[in-house]
Write a structure and sequence with these properties.
2 domains; Arc Repressor Mutant, subunit A; alpha+beta; ArsR-like_HTH; two-stranded antiparallel sheet; 11 strands; HTH_ArsR_DNA-bd_dom
């Protein structure tokens, strides 16, 4: 017997204000405990447990036990893409307009790859340099021969990125910049390389990224101005 996606079920799951807040917290890219998610959502631990069970049952989250704690994270990259898509189309709250230099707009993680003006600037730069090119699919990107040499010289492990069981390189529309940044395994590899080289630092319990003085120098050397 054929089956079809239960859209009503998943819409009801993410439509709950507390559950969607939990998913937004997990966009930091870190696994979080039930207690951390309860505190971040403003609900009692028992209530959080009930919501987390629903998210796990519907395939949005997975849980892993380590010691006395149970950690929750996205079940797949597609869940992160879903949450980011909702962030792009969601109406803005009635609040003072954020300043253009607001840190989360300048540089942040979109799950495991770089977003904000830093992320969109990198993709635009590498397209101009001819390191990346559009593939057959409008959202997919390919690394050119020039890009292979340049990214390898930069220290990005392309072989490891290609070996991951996910799409290799893709366009991901940025909710704050309204332009594309680099997603997929390559986007994650670039972000991890920048972090390992201490070009960027993540703010604690936040998706916000700070470009270090060394990172500023390296970005200028690559031809990218400091994100603002």
């Amino acid at each position: 017997m054929e089956s079809e996606p239960d859209l009503a079920r998943i819409a009801a799951t993410v439509g709950d204000a507390r559950r969607i807040r939990m998913l937004a917290l997990l966009m930091e890219g870190r696994a979080l405990t039930a207690k951390e998610l309860a505190l971040g959502t403003g609900v009692e631990p028992a209530t959080a447990t009930s919501h987390l069970k629903r998210l796990v049952d519907d395939g949005l989250l997975v849980a892993a036990s380590q010691g006395r704690h149970k950690y929750f994270r996205f079940a797949s990259e597609q869940v992160a893409q879903l949450v980011e898509s909702l962030m792009r189309v969601a109406p803005r709250r009635k609040a003072p307009a954020p300043a253009a230099h607001e840190p989360i707009r300048a540089a942040r993680f979109c799950y495991d790859h770089l977003a904000g003006s830093l992320g969109t600037g990198l993709l635009a730069l590498w397209l101009r340099k001819g390191w990346l090119a559009d593939g057959g699919d409008p959202k997919q990107l390919e690394v050119t021969a020039r890009g292979e040499k340049a990214l390898a010289a930069l220290g990005v492990d392309l072989a490891a990125a290609r070996a991951r069981r996910r799409q290799f390189a893709c366009r991901c529309l940025d909710w704050s910049e309204r332009q594309d940044h680099l997603g997929g395994a390559l986007g994650a590899a670039v972000a991890e390389h920048f972090r390992a080289q201490r070009w960027i630092e993540r703010s604690k319990h936040s998706r916000v990224v700070r470009v270090t003085p060394q990172g500023e120098r390296e970005l200028r050397r690559l031809g990218l101005a400091e994100p603002r």
